[in-house]
Specification:
The complex is a heterodimer of chains A (about 280) and B (about 400).
Chain A: E1 16-25, E2 30-37, H1 40-45, E3 53-58, E4 62-67, E5 78-83, H2 87-93, E6 100-107, E7 120-126, H3 130-142, E8 150-156, H4 168-173, E9 177-183, E10 193-194, H5 197-204, E11 211-216, H6 219-231, E12 239-242, E13 258-259, E14 262-263, H7 264-267, E15 270-272, H8 273-277
Parallel strand pairs in A: 7-8, 7-11, 8-9, 9-10, 11-12
Antiparallel strand pairs in A: 1-2, 1-6, 2-5, 3-4, 3-6, 12-15, 13-14
Helix pairs in contact in A: 5-6
Chain B: E1 3-7, H1 9-19, E2 24-31, E3 34-39, H2 42-47, E4 69-79, E5 87-92, E6 100-105, H3 107-121, H4 128-136, E7 137-142, E8 168-173, E9 176-181, H5 184-190, E10 196-197, H6 202-214, H7 225-231, H8 236-243, H9 251-255, E11 262-269, E12 272-279, H10 300-318, H11 330-334, H12 341-349
Parallel strand pairs in B: 2-6, 6-7, 7-8
Antiparallel strand pairs in B: 1-9, 1-10, 2-3, 4-5, 4-12, 8-9, 11-12
The chains are: A alpha/beta (about 280), B alpha+beta (about 400).
The complex binds flavin-adenine dinucleotide (FAD), iron/sulfur cluster (2 copies) and FE2/S2 (inorganic) cluster (FES).
The site of flavin-adenine dinucleotide has 22 residues of chain A, from strand 4, strand 5 and helix 2.
């Protein structure tokens, strides 16, 4: 992080100034932003693990939390995919290439993908939940020989709500990934599946043997997809998900994002379902 | 380290006035119906009678180290003269700390800083603003001369003469004050002061401490509070019943010496603006409201459950069994509808299984009791919770 003078070694509140390199319109409500720190030295030093998040800010408007959805091997930029929701996300959507933003990253824990080596992985992403899945999936695909069979089930409301359209052909044709796309309701010229994620998942019926399930999406989708995975025989310690909680500091101090004694910003956002079972039921 | 000095009231105020020429001296000041910490000049301090500086404050002295509002980041942008659509943004760190003496804390207040230190300084990320002010602040605490009906420091591992978190602890005795110098910082503060040796007053100090401690009502045993309150989490009816009167005003959290929560907001514009930190309260519904409309704590009973659980269960779970409530009683005194955290804690524990088998059969639940009462099976003498430590630094 940037230089400062107070005598402490690091100021976690001070953002790196970064420049927007490219803006990709993913869907009517989602845009992806590729940014890079202005300070080259800070950029060279910057590393992160898949699943970690960042606080992206528009100066004068505020900060919001987004997952870094490029794999760590990408050294040109980091990408955030932002769904327009409230104040900060609306201001982010107005950004153009060349605009400056603030970035505090990396924050939070990451996917325990070292422990998944040799195992099959079923990725399930719903809506903007595809953002964290994208990072870990691309990372695992880069090291595909270390893992077993990889598969993706990605669902969105409609074809136009589906983000990462530029990536989809490669994912569909990949030798190391089996991709299934689904939308909620019939749409003209849609060659893929139609149906809710949990239903399609049960039809695909991935085997729980030596397998890890990674699922991210809105709470309601998580709820039913979790039930579907359990029905298929997946154990809770092999079901991995990310939590969302309103955040401010992102560093375990402001007290905002607690779930029981855990801070989602510090101890999460990645948890196994077995870990979540140990926490107070306050979702 | 520990050494005793003796000061007459006049010597004490003269010493404080002397300190005020080189640093910020914060003392409790009467303002209308409230006592609040304010910086005082050398003239004001030398004119003040010592009794005016010994009042217990209505709000906690937390703001000496964690101001209610402060700038975390200042930013500025300069337009490119050739291409005005391009700007160059710089961010600045306004972090600076004034040397400060915090005079007249009570032991519970001083321990409050130890509670805040854990998240602010001892986690994976350190808060440089808090850290710099903490470093620059010397805490001079008054051993309590008497107790209030709302005091319960002895429930949570402390006592009215606890030196934990203080640099100097002073005790009123016949004819003046005995200062116990507890740390190097404390030693530096009395350097050059014309105080007499106080070692011959050790007995009078011990007697004063004993008299105050004995005035406290017996404390319940909270050694299993964390597990029992965690077990109460899903008892929605209990939390609803306990919270019926709550107005969600947040007074309890704003006055608390250990409440750590804040929000971050921007002010100004990219060309010239600031990122601010302001105290926030978990008792308001907006605290956890997400943009989607989803709110994990929409009901005030869920927010109260979080506040009480944080103090007596979540925090101890995270930090070696220490409670984050220091028993100052401010939330009890200032709640407009007289809700009492002591009652909620003992009621939540009643009839609950702790981690170990309960020492004594639980008393029947006193469902509607509004006045706090130590449970019938409370030990006669104050018991220190297993994990609580009071160490001199
Ligand atoms: C770990 C994590 C990862 C996330 N990753 C993404 C992502 O990759 N893409 C994406 O589009 N969204 C993501 N979100 C959600 C995103 O942070 C919120 O949608 C966003 O903060 C809303 O901000 P706003 O200013 O537009 O809304 P407003 O309602 O105007 O903002 C209020 C403030 O509340 C906070 N806030 C409100 N809702 C949320 C929320 N759901 N989560 C966290 N903070 C919130 C923010 O600090 C925000 O500035 C993530 C959230 C978390 C916790
Ligand atoms: S919870 Fe109440 S009694 Fe405990 S430290 Fe805070 S204000 Fe004091
Ligand atoms: S001070 Fe009393 S009424 Fe106000 S939020 Fe706290 S408990 Fe509720
Ligand atoms: S966002 Fe501040 S504690 Fe998690």
């Amino acid at each position: 992080m940037s230089e400062h003078t107070c005598g402490c070694s690091k100021n976690p509140y001070l953002p790196e100034v970064a420049t927007v390199l490219e803006v990709i319109t993913e869907s009517p409500t989602i845009k992806s932003f590729r940014v890079r720190f202005d300070n080259e030295e800070a950029w060279e030093r910057f590393t992160y693990r898949p699943g970690q998040v960042g606080q992206l800010s528009v100066f004068g408007v505020g900060e919001s939390t987004f997952v870094i959805n490029t794999p760590p091997s990408c050294r040109e930029y980091i990408q955030f995919s932002v769904m327009r929701a409230g104040e900060v996300t609306s201001a982010i959507h107005k950004l153009h290439p060349g605009d400056q933003v603030g970035v505090r990253a990396p924050l939070g824990n990451s996917f325990p993908c070292e422990q998944w080596k040799g195992k099959n992985i079923v990725f399930v992403g719903g809506g903007i939940g595809m953002a964290p899945i994208r990072t870990i999936m691309l990372h695992v695909m880069e090291h595909a020989s270390d893992y077993g069979k990889l598969s993706l089930l990605y669902g969105a409301k409609s074809p136009e709500d589906m983000a990462y359209k530029a990536d989809l052909p490669a994912w569909l044709e990949s030798d190391v990934l089996h991709t299934t796309l689904t939308i909620d309701r019939e749409a003209p010229n849609w060659p893929h599946r139609v149906g809710m994620i949990p239903t399609v998942l049960k039809e695909l019926a991935p085997s729980p043997d030596n397998s890890i399930a990674v699922l991210c999406g809105p709470p309601i989708m998580i709820k039913f997809t979790l039930a579907a995975f359990r029905e298929l025989g997946f154990k809770d310690e092999n079901i991995v998900t990310t939590l969302e909680r309103r955040m401010k500091c992102g560093i375990g101090i402001c007290g905002r994002c607690n779930l029981g004694g855990k801070y989602v910003c510090l101890d999460g956002p990645v948890f196994t379902q077995a870990q979540l079972n140990e926490l107070p039921p306050e979702m | 380290m520990s050494s005793l000095l003796f000061a007459t009231p006049a010597e004490l105020t003269a010493w404080l006035a002397g300190l005020a020429s080189g640093q910020r001296v914060l003392v409790p000041c009467q303002e209308g119906p409230s006592v609040v910490y304010r910086p005082r000049t050398a003239e004001q301090l030398s004119a003040a009678g010592v009794n005016a500086l010994l009042r217990r404050s209505t709000s906690s002295p937390k703001q000496a180290v964690l101001p209610q509002c402060e700038t975390l980041v200042a930013f500025k942008s300069v337009k490119d003269e050739q291409d005005p659509s391009k700007v160059t943004t710089t961010v600045e760190n306004p972090c600076k700390a004034e040397p400060t003496v915090l005079f007249g804390c009570r032991p519970c207040d001083a321990r409050g800083f130890v509670v805040l230190d854990r998240p602010y300084l001892h986690g994976p990320f350190k808060d440089p603003y808090y850290g710099a002010r903490r470093e620059a602040t010397t805490i001079v605490t008054q051993a309590c001369p008497s107790v209030f009906a709302t005091c319960f420091c002895h429930w949570v591992g402390s006592h009215p003469a606890d030196g934990e978190g203080s640099d100097i602890l002073f005790t009123a005795v016949e004819g003046g004050f005995v200062l116990d110098i507890l740390t190097e910082k404390g030693k530096a503060l009395v350097e050059g002061a014309a105080f007499a040796d106080g070692s011959d007053k050790a007995e009078a100090v011990a007697a004063a401490h004993k008299a105050t401690a004995e005035a406290l009502a017996p404390a319940p045993n909270l050694s299993e509070a964390a597990a029992k309150i965690a077990a109460r989490f899903t008892d929605t009816a209990f939390w609803t019943r306990e919270t019926v009167k709550c107005l969600s005003c947040g007074a309890c959290t704003y006055l608390c010496p250990t409440c750590q929560c804040f929000t971050i907001t921007d002010e100004g514009s990219q060309l010239n603006g600031r990122r601010l930190r302001s105290w926030d309260s978990c008792m308001t519904p907006l605290f956890t409201l997400e943009t989607s409309g989803h709110n994990p704590r929409p009901d005030k009973s869920q927010r109260m459950r979080n506040r009480v659980s944080h103090k007596f269960s979540f925090y101890p779970e995270r930090y070696d069994g220490f409670f984050s409530c220091v028993g100052c009683g401010r939330c009890v005194i200032s709640c407009p509808v007289s809700l009492d955290i002591r009652h909620m804690v003992t009621a939540a524990m009643e009839g609950m299984e702790g981690k170990k088998p309960a020492e004594a059969p639980a008393a029947p639940a006193e469902k509607t009791a509004e006045t706090p009462k130590a449970p019938a099976d409370a030990p006669a003498a104050p018991k220190t919770p297993a994990k609580s430590k009071s160490k001199k630094r």
